[in-house]
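Q: Got one fold?
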Amino acid sequence: MSSDPSQISAANAALTRFVRRQGGNPSDVDDIVQESWLRLSTAQPKTPVRNLAGYLRQIAANLIRDRHRRTALGVETLAPNTELDLTPSPRSDPEALLITRDELARMENVLAGMPARRREVFRLSRMDGMTFAEIARQLGISRQTVHEHMMHALIVIQQAADCDEG
C-alpha cells in the first residue's frame, strides 16, 4: 500500500463519495469508510494493491452489502464491549501481562510520535468512544478532517505493527 499522502487523501475522498452515493444511513458513511481503511490495513493480498481507490471501493461495497443483509435479516451485531467480556483476563497469566504492558508502551510511543491534533482525534475516538461528529464539534474542525486524522493515525499504527512483526 502506498503511503503517499496525496494518493491516500484522493483515495479517501473517492471512497467517501462512493459510500455516500450508495444511499443508506448517512450516519454510517464515516463508519464504513473507516472500516474499509481498517480492513485494508489488515488485509494480506497475494499481489500488491495497484489501484488503492478501487480496492477500497470493493471493500466498502462488501461492507455495505453485509450491512444490508444484516438489516434485512434483523440481525444485530455484538457491541464492542461484549467481545471484550468474552476475552480472558491477562491478569491470570504474568507473561501475558508483561506482553500487554510492552504492547501498550509501544502504542504510547507511536502515539507520542504523531502530531498533537492527530493524537487527540485518535484518543477521543478510540479511547473516549466519541463519534467523528462529536469530535469535529468539540475540536471545531470538519468531520472530513477528523476522518483524515483517524485514517493517517491508523496507517501509522499499522506501519509500526508491521515493523514490530518484521
Q: What stands out?
A: The chain has eight helices and no strands. Residues 78-85 have pLDDT under 50 and may be disordered. Residues 1 and 49 are 6 Å apart (CA to CA).
